[in-house]
Amino acid sequence: MIKRTTNLALQGGEEVRKLKLIPSIIFIILSLAGIATALTSFYYVYSLNTSPPACYFNVNNSRVKLNCLNVLKSSYSSLKLNIGIKFNVNLDVLAIIYFTISLLLSIIMLFTSYSILAQLIWSIIGTAFIPYLVYLEIYVIRSVCIYCTTMHILIILQLLLSIYYIIKKLI
């Protein structure tokens, strides 16, 4: 009887580990997809000086074009600060940093339940910039970048999953 109870307790612990593993894997995949998207965009635009694959589509009657180069080469494609020293960082580089930190939080999620809260806060910070960036693409630059849109979707998915896992208390 004692042996059977111990086996059931071990099985229950195994289920808890699986419940922690599944969200971590999902967040790791989303983070890796974000890093790959940002690296691809950065490599094509700034190393090869060309548009990334599947990034240009012109519709004659459309006011907004699908054209990554218009977006990624615009004056809005980098963060410019002057805090004693001029600071100019490309948004693709910031995206790589963002998704790398998200990846680290996802790995930490395997070991502690507090990192889901950190992931939520990090996703809120990332999501806060999306409306402004979409506004710039549509109304100012009048071009949409599919790679930028992909990263926006990945960040929103991370936010929604963070909320879901906190509500469900799976972690």
Give an overview of the whole structure.
The chain has helices spanning 2-47, 68-72, 91-108, 114-141, 146-168, and strands spanning 56-57, 65-67, 78-82, 86-90, 143-144. It has 171 residues and is mainly α. The protein is globular, with a radius of gyration of 20 Å.
What is the gist of this entry?
By secondary structure, the chain is mostly helical.
Indicate the overall shape: globular
Biggest beta sheet summary? 3 strands, mixed
- Tally of alpha and pi helices: 5
Weakly predicted, low-confidence segments: 1-13
The sequence of SSEs as H and E is HEEHEEHHEH
What structural class should be given to the helix and strand makeup?
A: mainly alpha
* Strands ordered across the widest β-sheet: 1-2-5
- Name the beta content range: 5-15%
Radius of gyration: 20 Å
Percent in helix: over 70%
End-to-end Cα distance: 31 Å
Mean pLDDT: 83
Can you tag this structure with a few keywords?
disordered N terminus, 3-stranded mixed β-sheet, 5 helices, about 170 residues, two-stranded antiparallel ribbon, mainly alpha, single chain
